[in-house]
């Protein structure tokens, strides 16, 4: 028979080796393709395109899926029927260019992303990464990303910014105080430099005047009795919950999952968050009643979710721990009727004490 | 059919998102979830690949093939929490293909026979000399076995799987599994007898 020690025999597994293996996997699996891998593919395609066109720089037009540092990204006019140009960045952020827009990706590094908007408008869905700065320069102003989703327009001698989610800071390149914009706020000011060639002709440079912050109606939000703050997105909360779990901050993770499922019940992550909240409350926080409520919510939010069986089984466990014999027996009967040969059948059968 | 995982399932702990969470996110196209699943199970897959192949040089390709297949077929995984076991069965089947390919290449003269086995070199570092010698003996002999027999034998003797688990991992009946392991065992014993002074 085998020896237990045999299983200790493993190959040397360094971080470099793991990274190399994953890079190869990501390059082969389209669904798992990392932004970096996407870039490599597009860099090669763009290099070929540039060579064929006899141009010196990489220029991305509509349908672009990735870009490399230093690349110019541009979109067609609104009248030529071109779809909007969407560019994926290394950190998972996405930039969507409006019509007749030209921008340059001047930095795309783990610590700094910088886009120079030469003319037109762009919309940014920025991932939230600690230690990474994300800046869009539009003429004489910089928009520094603090949160997640915003748009910048530079045309007709004006720079305008609108924030849909999260927070950004706008600062004049010449220095001075920055303006902090939260979700639902809009900012505009005369541009201090001329717009780029794709933008409409701009008037002579105008000295910066005090920017005006105009509150605008917030974008439609999911129907909710949300404790989620207005500057939070479901993705932010999910990321926050995962970070907290990885760092062993179970209570923080539970709070983030709770805010997500209550604040964004229509988000695809809501059911999963409710389920994860249930697991945390049951396994770590010792809150069986809270777990039962969250698991019930997970079943309601995702009636056909892949973890529906898990949620029902864990709910039986939660009700058993609560000592609610009647409800536990009903939940047990429901599980066994639905999954007579289910993965958790044995556990569920024993879940409420005596049958 | 996936192999039951008897060791503790890291996805069920509280140190990170559950396997279900990661699989669901990966199915939704979240690249971070693919990487998180890979990083969680890379040690398991590398270890299993190494123990099935006996050579470190074969491991990278096997692991990459197995994960690429797994990520491409995530939608077919009925129980996301069973990702580890499911991945294990993919590693086993991929190993079978690699071994068969290697044998074919040797027959065609495209690959040199008898390339060194390095499992005992690593075994001697992590286990005692007795275990390393035992492993070396096993691998020297299973090298000559057909892929199906070799895989079944190693899953039983080295991975320590139950017969039912070997059957599930290799996708054959319990009876076939028993026959393969018995045939492999007899072949190995015959070689041991011949090698006795």
The separation of the N and C termini of chain B measures 44 Å
What's the architecture of the largest domain in chain B in CATH terms? Orthogonal Bundle
**Count the strands of chain B?**
0
Percentage of residues in helical conformation of chain A? 25-40%
How many discrete domains of chain B? 2
Alpha-beta classification of chain A: alpha+beta
Note poorly predicted spans of chain A. Answer: 31-69, 78-83, 194-227
The global form of chain A is elongated
Report the total helices of chain A.
9
Oligomer: heterodimer
Average predicted local confidence, pLDDT of chain B = 79
Total number of helices of chain B: 9
What's the N-to-C terminus distance of chain A?
40 Å
Question: Could you outline the blueprint of secondary structure elements for this entry?
Answer:
The complex is a heterodimer of chains A (355) and B (197).
Chain A: H1 15-28, H2 35-53, E1 59-60, E2 72-74, E3 85-88, E4 94-97, E5 102-109, E6 112-125, E7 133-138, E8 141-145, E9 149-155, E10 158-165, E11 167-172, E12 179-182, E13 185-190, E14 212-215, H3 234-246, H4 250-263, H5 270-283, H6 288-301, H7 308-322, H8 325-338, H9 345-349
Parallel strand pairs in A: 1-2, 6-7
Antiparallel strand pairs in A: 2-5, 3-4, 4-6, 5-6, 6-9, 7-8, 8-11, 9-10, 10-13, 11-12, 13-14
Chain B: H1 19-27, H2 31-53, H3 59-72, H4 83-107, H5 119-126, H6 129-142, H7 147-157, H8 163-170, H9 174-195
Helix pairs in contact in B: 1-2, 2-3, 2-4, 3-4, 5-6, 7-8, 7-9, 8-9
Polypeptide structure, described:
The complex is a heterodimer of chains A (355) and B (197). Chain A is of the alpha+beta class and 355 residues long. Chain A folds into two domains: 57-215, Jelly Rolls (Sandwich), CATH 2.60.120; 234-349, Alpha Horseshoe (Serine Threonine Protein Phosphatase 5, Tetratricopeptide repeat). Helices cover 34% and strands 23% of the residues of chain A. In chain A, strands 1, 2, 3, 4, 5, 6, 7, 8, 9, 10, 11, 12, 13 and 14 form a 14-stranded mixed β-sheet that branches. In chain A, helix 5 packs antiparallel against helix 6. The two termini of chain A are 40 Å apart. Chain B is mostly helical. Chain B has two domains: 16-115, Rna Polymerase Sigma Factor, Chain: A; 129-197, Orthogonal Bundle (Arc Repressor Mutant, subunit A), CATH 1.10.10. Chain B has helices spanning 19-27, 31-53, 59-72, 83-107, 119-126, 129-142, 147-157, 163-170, 174-195. Residues 1-15 of chain B have low confidence and may be disordered. At the A-B interface, helix 1, helix 3 and helix 5 of A face helix 1, helix 2, helix 3, helix 5 and helix 6 of B.
């Amino acid at each position: 028979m085998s020896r237990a020690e045999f299983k200790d025999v493993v190959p040397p597994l360094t971080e470099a080796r793991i990274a190399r293996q994953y890079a190869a996997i990501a390059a082969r699996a389209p669904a798992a393709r990392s932004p970096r891998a996407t870039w490599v593919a597009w860099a090669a395609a763009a290099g070929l395109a540039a060579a064929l066109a006899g141009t010196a720089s990489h220029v991305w037009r509509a349908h672009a899926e990735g870009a490399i540092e230093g690349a110019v990204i541009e979109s067609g006019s609104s009248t030529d029927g071109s779809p909007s140009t969407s560019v994926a960045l290394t950190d998972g952020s996405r930039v969507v260019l409006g019509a007749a827009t030209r921008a340059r990706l001047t930095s795309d590094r783990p610590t700094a992303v910088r886009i120079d908007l030469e003319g037109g408008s762009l919309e940014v869905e920025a991932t939230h990464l600690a230690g990474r700065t994300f800046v869009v320069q539009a003429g004489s102003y910089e928009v520094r990303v603090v949160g997640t989703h915003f748009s910048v327009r530079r045309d007709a001698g004006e720079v305008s910014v609108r924030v849909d989610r999260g927070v950004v800071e706008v600062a004049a390149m010449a220095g001075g105080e920055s303006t902090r914009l939260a979700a639902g706020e809009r900012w505009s000011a005369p541009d201090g430099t001329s717009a780029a060639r794709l933008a409409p002709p701009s008037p002579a440079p105008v000295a910066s005047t005090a920017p005006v912050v105009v509150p605008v109606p917030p974008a439609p939000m999911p129907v909710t009795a949300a404790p989620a703050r207005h500057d939070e997105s479901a993705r932010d909360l999910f990321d926050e919950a995962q970070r907290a779990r990885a760092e062993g901050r179970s209570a923080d993770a539970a709070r983030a999952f709770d805010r997500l499922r209550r604040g964004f019940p229509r988000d695809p992550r809501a059911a999963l968050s409710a389920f994860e909240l249930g697991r945390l409350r049951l396994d770590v926080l010792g809150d069986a009643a809270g777990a039962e409520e969250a698991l019930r919510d997970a079943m309601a939010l995702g009636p056909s979710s892949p973890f529906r069986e898990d949620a029902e089984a864990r709910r039986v466990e939660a009700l058993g721990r609560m000592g609610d014999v009647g409800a536990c027996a009903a939940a047990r009967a429901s599980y066994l009727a639905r999954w007579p040969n289910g993965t958790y059948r044995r556990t569920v059968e024993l879940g409420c004490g005596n049958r | 059919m996936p192999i039951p995982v008897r060791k503790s399932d890291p996805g069920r702990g509280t140190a990170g998102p559950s396997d279900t969470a990661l699989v669901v996110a990966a199915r939704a196209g979240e690249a971070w979830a693919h990487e998180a699943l890979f990083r969680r199970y890379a040690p398991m897959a590398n270890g299993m690949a190494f123990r099935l192949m006996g050579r470190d040089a074969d491991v990278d390709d096997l692991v990459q093939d197995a994960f690429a297949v797994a990520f491409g077929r995530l939608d077919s995984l009925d129980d996301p929490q069973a990702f580890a076991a499911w991945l294990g069965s993919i590693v086993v089947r991929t190993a079978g293909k690699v071994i068969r390919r290697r044998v074919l290449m040797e027959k065609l003269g495209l690959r040199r026979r008898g390339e060194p086995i390095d499992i005992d070199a690593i075994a001697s570092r992590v286990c005692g000399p007795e275990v390393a010698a035992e492993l070396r003996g096993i691998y020297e002999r299973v090298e000559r076995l057909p892929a199906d027999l070799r895989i079944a034998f190693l899953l039983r003797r080295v991975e320590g799987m139950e017969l039912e688990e070997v059957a599930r991992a290799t996708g054959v009946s319990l009876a076939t599994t028993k026959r393969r392991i018995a045939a492999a065992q007899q072949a190995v014993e015959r070689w041991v007898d011949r090698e006795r002074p």
